[in-house]
Amino acid sequence: MMETSIWQPMVDRLDRLRAAGRRVDFWLRDDDAVEPTAALDRLVDLAGRFSVPITLAVIPAHTSGELSRYLAHRDDISVAVHGWTHRNHAPPAEKRQELGGHRPREVVLDELKRGHSHLKALHSSSYVPLLVPPWNRIDPGFLDGLPDIGFTALSVFGPERKSPSKPAKMKNGSIASAFPRPGLSLINTHVDVMDWHGTRGCRNHREIIQDIVRRMDELDVDEEAVGILTHHLVHDESVWEFLSRLFELTSVHPACRWRRVSDLIAR
Q: Which SUPFAM superfamilies does the entry link to (predicted)?
């Protein structure tokens, strides 16, 4: 039974969308996958119960055929490139970055090319040419090299476009201002379930729901979606409880649909 008082604002917003003949797209991005684990099993089983497609951001340098065999017959799971080693190259005084401007451009792009080739070979049927920078940060100077590697989309955290009244707060600088750009789509996540700067467990459920409703209020074009960000390896029970309730509500409401990231890139 859902806690009506907590979830009601989201239900009310969805009901208004339905009354207006509109609906909102959701997508799920889960970061840091490397190998099959009990936590990944739990995520896959939970999402599968509600027909929610998953985009796994996989760390290329640390993964192998074990994960590809695990995902071989799972049609609703897509694989994206999560940097190369997920290693920080920024000095202590700066925020962590693997894809920052701290190393030669050709070195960084070569690693991304290797990651793209490695995952495409391992996951031929589920691979999507989507780059997910570790820590959601990438130096804008690398963007023009991504299409040459084969990437057609980038995913960080935050709005895809800046609002005149509320500037986008991007974790990686002004990436939003670099789009639209030829050959590369920006398909972001917008709601993080984790309290990284506090308990390192689940955030307060009410606050997560408020973020979802706020994101829905921002949407004014059909090409945009609500991106939910998860990290299965560090979920506590409160995260699993939240996701179960979120999936339960959204999977049956006529104003919602969960999308594969490839569908969002294609449009």
A: Glycoside hydrolase/deacetylase
